[in-house]
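Below is how a single chain appears once it has passed through the pipeline. First comes the sequence as given, then the structure the pipeline wrote out for it. We keep one example in the README because the format questions we get most often are answered faster by looking than by reading.
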Amino acid sequence: MKRIEASPETVKIALSLSPHIGAVTLDNLLSHFDQDPAAVFAAPRAELLKVRGVGPAIARDIKAIDLQRIAQEIAAWRARGVAILSTEDRDYPPLLRGLEGAPPILFVSGRLFDELWTKTIAIVGTRHPTKEARFITLQLAAKLARHDYSVVSGLALGIDAAAHTGALAGPGRTIAVLGSGILNIYPEANRQLAERVQECGALLGQLHPLWSANAQRLVARNRIISGLSQAVILVESHVDGGAMYTARFAGEQGRPVYTFDLPASGNQALIQRGAIALKRDDPLDFLLG
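Resulting structure:
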């Protein structure tokens, strides 16, 4: 076995960034090698192939990892204010840690404090909201913020942007979960909003900080949004909108899903499936009594 010069943390980060190694496969690897990331990296190919979920492609990816380059990148990210959290770190969001297949590594930029994760509600919806839905979102997010909730959303145009904006106006805290790397803001139109989010909350993601967004990564982002949150409120969406993934993940994670009785097809579908319809005039009755 070859000598590993990098720290176990660096090796774990490197493994988590391998494009074909998901949370479950990484957990299988660490379990097989007694929770020793360095042993995973140093293992011969034949031993790697004994791990459930590891085929020739993943074994090849592991052997091709350049730990020196990864260590240099980690230092550069930290110099730009990026915190790197593993599931063992006390700052890792506790609700997310409790999920099966929780992201093994999170990249965070902003303010890290316990209250950020303690009371969390996700607000999501379409990128093309009606005026009524946008107004509802701004008012709802501001009220949640004033009652000491962190508003979680995805920094997208439309409802997401209104959720972050309303929370900041509260004034209060907000968490933006990105479908891109946190040093490669997507969408570019929300860059200034992202900077404001970092001042009163955090940008968060599981991807290499410089990676760009794509459809698959945006869907994975939605699972983190629901996983971070005690409940999910979908304000407005078509039935095939991306926010519907967040509602579906919330159901799988045991999080309650709320919506409004608006005409949008996604809203109506959620109500038919048992989502709780909130009042437009005082939607926080369900939380505040």
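The chain is about 45% helix and 15% strand.

See the next section for the split statistics.
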